[in-house]
């Protein structure tokens, strides 16, 4: 069996929620006649989502959302099954955006993004296609930030469902997915021990919280840096050391950025770091670590297996995955665990169905995933796990919806 196909079948085995959705899609064909344009990390779990959408009647055109996250054998398996796939690992930026254009050449009526590159291209260079688009779905925090900025300026011209912002995405994908997969990729790439190490996590959103918690569980001494006073206080009460990055820079041995913002680790921080410090990013784009400064001002002393080493003064710093998304961009990066992506991609699949049915009735802007969809996915997963939960009695339901009952 082809290696890509073997990966996809392995993932399918541990994705019961998407399997159940696919069974219904096959019967009901809710996406019949719909062309879907996708820019996601093209690997095995994504392929299961793609095949679920195809099973629902969609014609899918897909490319990558990161130049280093594509798995070429999965691309080959998708192509062999009739999916239009334009992604390639280690592509140049020119090739990356050319593939985005190939997806848009198919004139999709629904977009599915991880980082908003498809939607950005639609609104800047491919506006001729805009009238054909019903709407889109966005997978990640960085993309939501960009979309909300567009919507605030009234530049977003069709509705987009914020898949990233559901409890099912935050509680599982961001916390457990990012936390486990980033640390797994770091350990597999460096062969370094986490236990006893001073780990600096920049940002204490859902992703940062997951990373900090799981690094501590492995025995690390964890420092958190933040700009939001509420999240900073939360990190403190969760038992982590709280510092500014300038205070943490001389102490840290492993730095992981999770902010979604730019210039989190800069020349001022590099100058304070220990010899041998390891730097990586678990946010979406490669803007959190100032790689440009290192390339210009430090001596590159070698690249191997996802590690770039830079020497300046009396120290050497090691950057993983070129500062890109570490859990997918290193050679051994497998991305989020399968069971986590079963939930996130189930939200994508049902949100895509929702957009196909309701897109013409939604106003341009960023829309929440309907709560019923999020709860449905949780219930399917609980049933697959053999777990049972209570339900409200009629009396309890009436009490919770009433304002008349007091003490």
Automatic annotation (TrEMBL):
SMART domains in the record: AdoHcyase, AdoHcyase_NAD
Keywords, in A-Z order: Hydrolase, NAD, One-carbon metabolism
Keyword Transcription: no
Cofactor binding note: Binds 1 NAD(+) per subunit.
GO molecular function: adenosylhomocysteinase activity
Residue ranges of coiled coil: none
This protein's record includes keyword Magnesium: no
Pfam families (alphabetical): AdoHcyase, AdoHcyase_NAD
A biological process from GO: one-carbon metabolic process
Protein name as catalogued: Adenosylhomocysteinase
Native organism: Methanocalculus taiwanensis
